[in-house]
Structure to design on (330 residues):
């Protein structure tokens, strides 16, 4: 972990954090199974400037918080400031006011909270002339995420920091977290919102309770999940879209079995498959939020989106993989 000095900049360029889409392995990743995810070009941006007291304003959510003001955002901001303060070379002195803009829905399963944490951290670091490496930034962003998510695997913050297309395995016991870049031909996903808010803290706690209640059955389902993610990764890397679609469907069945899907998300997955998608599943924390569908070509994607739109579900398209391994949204 390293923290270094660099020239301080205020008000010039906004700092950013990426949103993310989990292709396979959400929830299982909390329990040690690898997950496949890609950074979104949508995320959050933030600017910091000196102010008499630390403050964070978030639009378009219309939220404003001070550390320790009793609000969840104030608690997350306080945790982030405290974790930053632990860095030995932190500049002392003036407080900062951060103005952030989030481009993703909150509680949508697309990592809006991690994107906001990373944009806020980077804006503060930029204004104070601090350069923090990945591990240092991840540790600070995780302090924020723990307030919202309880026990985050770190996948959201890792993608918020670096984007790309990765296989991520969380730190467990002595083993450190691992993130491996994946190379895959570009493919386009349909990402659609259920319009329901998905509370990740609640669904993660629900899965943890399952683990306590039925440890043997849970361990067995984790092994199946691990196979599904491995098969999905093979299909992704080899460009076998039908096999990848089948892996998405299997993952959705497992997530439904764990009780983190909703009737609406299930229906959206069905609608997508009926319209020609090769596979579909919820993405992120579930209990609402978004789903993804994989369609083989542009006309099928258009049919999937039209079928979803006819039921009132808005969607966008996201490209993952390709030469840059970055993800763009149209
Ligand atoms: O709902 P999101 O975008 O925060 O995604 C959560 C992903 C989980 O695997 C459910 C939780 C985690 O920390 O990995």
């Amino acid at each position: 972990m390293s923290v270094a000095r660099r020239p301080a900049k205020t008000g010039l360029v906004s700092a950013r954090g990426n949103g993310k889409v989990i292709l396979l392995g959400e929830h299982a990743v909390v329990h040690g199974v690898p997950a496949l995810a890609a950074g979104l070009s949508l995320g959050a941006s933030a600017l910091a400037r000196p102010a008499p007291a630390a403050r964070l304003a978030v639009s378009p959510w219309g939220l404003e918080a001070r550390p320790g003001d009793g609000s969840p955002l104030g608690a997350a901001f306080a945790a982030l400031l405290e974790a930053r303060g632990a860095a030995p070379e932190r500049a002392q002195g003036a407080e900062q006011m951060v103005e952030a803009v989030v481009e993703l829905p909150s509680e949508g399963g697309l990592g809006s909270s991690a994107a906001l944490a990373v944009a806020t951290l980077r804006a503060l670091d930029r204004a104070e002339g601090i350069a923090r490496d990945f591990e240092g930034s991840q540790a600070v962003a995780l302090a924020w995420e723990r307030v919202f998510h309880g026990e985050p695997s770190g996948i959201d913050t890792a993608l918020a920091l670096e984007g790309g297309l990765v296989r991520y395995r969380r730190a467990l016991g002595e083993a450190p977290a691992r993130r491996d870049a994946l190379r895959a031909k570009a493919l386009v996903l349909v990402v659609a919102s259920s319009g329901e808010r998905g509370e990740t803290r609640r669904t993660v706690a629900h899965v943890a309770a399952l683990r306590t209640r039925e440890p043997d059955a849970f361990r067995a389902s984790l092994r199946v999940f691990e196979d599904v993610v491995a098969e999905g990764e093979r299909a992704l890397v080899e460009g076998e879209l039908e096999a990848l679609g089948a892996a998405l469907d299997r993952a959705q069945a497992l997530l439904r079995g764990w009780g983190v899907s909703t009737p609406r998300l299930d229906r959206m997955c069905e609608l997508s498959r009926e319209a020609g998608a090769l596979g579909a599943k919820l993405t992120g924390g579930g209990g609402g939020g978004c789903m993804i569908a994989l369609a083989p070509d542009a006309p099928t994607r258009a049919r999937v989106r039209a079928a979803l739109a006819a039921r009132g579900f808005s969607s966008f398209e996201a490209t993952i993989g390709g030469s840059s391994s970055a993800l763009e949204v149209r």
Residues 26-27, 29-30, 109-111, 149, 152-153, 155-156, 200, 204, 284-285 surround PMV (CB under 6 Å). The longest strand covers residues 35-51. Residues 215-238 form the longest helix (24 residues). The radius of gyration is 20 Å.
